[in-house]
Write a structure and sequence with these properties.
Length: 259
């Protein structure tokens, strides 16, 4: 349990972005996303600049497009919603290829698609360059409450255990004639999910009692985050890490001034 856990989105590497302290990358991500969201959707050029910033980070971190693009499909449900907006919104309408589309709906759809895509791309950049074991320590350095950090740490430690439990339960169902893809088995699958929840809850209680018996006081010690955790960010590293965020803020401010 003391070993670090690598999530599927992490790409092992030794780039400058990989070596940057995780707390600096988290702050940079938050500022970047806020700047993107705050940009007026009627102005198009800032989004090209945001995309260029992300692509530049991908080049620094040596993250290929063929790795990023399939993982961005997580935003597909939001894209479906965006497609419907030009048909459902009211106000001024225009004719495009025989369709009556709402101008407000088109702007809303554009805003959802571009801002969601940039947000997902930026988040994937953080995930690809930050090991899971570094996240709790980074949040602790940023002053996140100890209870939240403890919950995140335990989730990271035991997610593999729960995944193994799900695999064993599925194998047990199949060996008894279950067909997981059949609609007639929906009831059995729902019961399995309930059983998994109860087992997880009971395991959590046992783990918590074991921690209390060993002197747990509400905060996970830094040693529990992994021996390979990065050192805290210094002034120079904070300055370099904030460059993309500062550029995004400057672009957003310019978009409002030039609007």
């Amino acid at each position: 349990m003391g070993a670090g856990h690598a999530h599927p989105l992490y790409r092992d590497g030794n780039s400058a972005l990989h070596r940057t302290a995780p707390e600096a990358k988290i702050v940079c991500l938050v500022i970047f996303v806020v700047a993107v969201v705050a940009t007026p959707r009627e102005t198009f050029w800032p989004y090209a600049v945001y995309a260029a910033i992300i692509v530049a980070l991908w080049l620094v971190a040596r993250i290929p497009l063929r790795w990023v693009l399939p993982r961005m499909l997580i935003e597909a449900p939001f894209l479906i919603l965006a497609v419907l907006l030009p048909f459902s919104e009211g106000g001024e309408r225009i004719h495009v290829a025989g369709l009556h589309l709402s101008v407000a709906g088109l702007y809303a759809a554009w805003g959802i698609v571009i801002k969601g895509t940039l947000g997902v791309a930026a988040s994937l950049t953080l995930a690809a360059t930050t090991a899971t074991s570094e996240l709790p320590l980074a949040l602790s350095r940023l002053g996140v409450p100890g209870l939240v950090v403890s919950m995140l740490t335990l989730m990271i430690r035991y997610i593999d255990v729960l995944a193994g439990e799900v695999s064993r339960m599925r194998m047990a169902r199949i060996s008894r004639g279950d067909s997981p893809r059949g609609l007639h088995q929906a009831g059995a699958i729902a019961k399995g999910v309930g059983a998994l929840f109860l087992r997880s809850y009971e395991r959590g209680e046992r783990v918590h009692l074991a921690m209390l018996s060993r002197g747990y006081g509400g905060r996970v010690p830094a040693l529990a985050f992994g021996a390979g955790s990065s050192v805290a960010a210094g002034g120079r590293q904070w300055l370099l890490a904030m460059l993309p965020a500062a550029a995004a803020v400057l672009v957003a401010a310019s978009a409002w001034v030039l609007k």
